[in-house]
Structure formats: structure tokens, C-alpha cells
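Materials and Methods. Structural model of DUF2442 domain-containing protein. The 137-residue sequence of DUF2442 domain-containing protein from Xaviernesmea rhizosphaerae was retrieved and submitted for structure prediction as follows.
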Amino acid sequence: MEISDRDFAAAVQRGQKARSDFVAASARYDAGAHALVVVLSNGVFVGFPVERLEGLQGADAAQLAHVRVEAGGLGLHWPDLDADLYVPALMEGIFGSRTWMAAQLGASGGQARSEAKASAAKRNGARGGRPRRASEG
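The predicted structure was written out as C-alpha cells:
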């Protein structure tokens, strides 16, 4: 696959912007808050609850504390967990892969409680519930 000079220049520009905006200088696990704390190169620090980050749920404090800043500050890596996070994505509220994030959003949506949802479930139940799938074969 070939890339044009224009596409290459645009990719370089996006990379430079990401490096200037969201580059981690350091990262650590805060056991008291059960959070990942990332210090950016501009001195700003941001915390994230570890249970909201892909690959970190259920890890113990020693595993979480063993975090490395890699890729010139663009990545965080936990060798004990084989987990990686992309710093610019974290800053945008993306705490894992697309598939993982979709599963998290779907799970929270399924747990939602509202009068509209309860009313719809009652109406559906009065009609006999969810239709059965037609059997194949």
C-alpha cells in the first residue's frame, strides 16, 4: 500500500499535535484512591479509576503500581498485566478498545432504570413477551 506525500504530511502533523497535547511525563497507581494518576509533560495531572480502564480491572496493587511510560509519553504499559493504554485517547475519555468501550456502554444501558423502560417492558409482557426466534432446519 502506497501513501501519498499529502497523506504522510497529514499523519506527521496529527502525530506532532498528539505529542504536544497529551504526553505523559510519569504515571503511578494511587492505592488510596484506587486510581491511575498520569502527570502530563505540561505539569497537569489527571486521575482515572482503574476499574474503568481496560485490562486493569481486578488487578492487585503491586501489578497496578508496575506501570511504565512508553512510546515517548504516548503509551502506558503494565508488563505484569500485558495491558496498554494510549494517553491521548485517555484524555479524550476513551478508556479502552472500541469493542471494550461498546461492551461497557451496553452493560450500563442494560442496567438503566426508567419509567419509560419499565412501561415498555410491561406492554411487551402483556403481548406475550419477546417473540421466539424461528427455528432453522
